[in-house]
C-alpha cells in the first residue's frame, strides 16, 4: 500500500536520488516535500512553492517502477488542497502534458509562471527536447 506523508530528514538521500535520476534538482528543507511511500521505498515526491499570486509545483517526480499506478495523482490530490485557494501552476515537460490534463490542469500563459522559473526554463539546454508547457489547476 502506498501512503503519503511529509518527508523527514532521514528521507533526504532517497528524495535526492529520485530527483537526480529524473534530471531534477533538490532544495532544502526536506520537510517541504510530500512523499509517497511504498514500504521502505519512496515511490514519488512533490513540493509546492508559494509565490505572490500562485503556488508552483517544483517538482512532481514518480519513480519509474511506480509510473501509471496512480502515485502522481495521489501526490497531487494530497498537495493541491494545501494551496489555500491560490491557483497551482506547473511547467510540465511536454510528454507529461496528457497526465496533467487528465488530473484537471489546463494549458496556461507563461506570464503565470514566476519569473525565476520562466528564466530557468528559457536558459535550460534541454528546452528543445523537454518542450515545456505552463499549466494551471484553478
From TrEMBL:
<dbReference type="GO" id="GO:0016747">
    <property type="term" value="F:acyltransferase activity, transferring groups other than amino-acyl groups"/>
</dbReference>
<dbReference type="InterPro" id="IPR016181">
    <property type="entry name" value="Acyl_CoA_acyltransferase"/>
</dbReference>
<dbReference type="InterPro" id="IPR000182">
    <property type="entry name" value="GNAT_dom"/>
</dbReference>
<feature type="domain" description="N-acetyltransferase">
    <location>
        <begin position="1"/>
        <end position="124"/>
    </location>
</feature>
<dbReference type="Pfam" id="PF13508">
    <property type="entry name" value="Acetyltransf_7"/>
</dbReference>
<keyword id="KW-0808">Transferase</keyword>
<protein>
    <submittedName>
        <fullName>N-acetyltransferase</fullName>
    </submittedName>
</protein>
Amino acid at each position: 500500500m502506498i501512503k503519503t506523508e511529509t518527508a523527514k530528514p532521514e528521507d533526504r538521500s532517497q528524495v535526492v536520488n529520485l530527483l537526480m535520476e529524473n534530471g531534477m534538482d533538490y532544495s532544502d528543507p526536506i520537510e517541504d516535500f510530500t512523499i509517497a511511500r511504498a514500504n521502505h521505498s519512496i515511490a514519488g515526491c512533490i513540493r509546492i512553492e508559494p509565490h505572490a499570486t500562485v503556488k508552483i509545483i517544483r517538482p512532481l517526480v514518480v519513480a519509474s517502477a511506480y509510473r501509471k499506478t496512480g502515485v502522481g495523482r495521489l501526490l497531487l490530490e494530497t498537495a493541491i488542497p494545501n494551496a489555500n485557494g491560490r491557483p497551482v501552476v506547473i511547467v510540465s515537460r511536454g510528454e507529461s502534458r496528457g497526465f496533467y490534463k487528465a488530473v484537471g490542469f489546463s494549458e496556461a500563459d507563461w506570464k503565470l509562471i514566476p519569473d525565476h522559473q520562466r528564466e530557468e526554463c528559457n536558459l535550460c539546454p534541454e528546452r528543445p527536447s523537454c518542450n515545456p508547457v505552463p499549466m494551471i489547476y484553478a
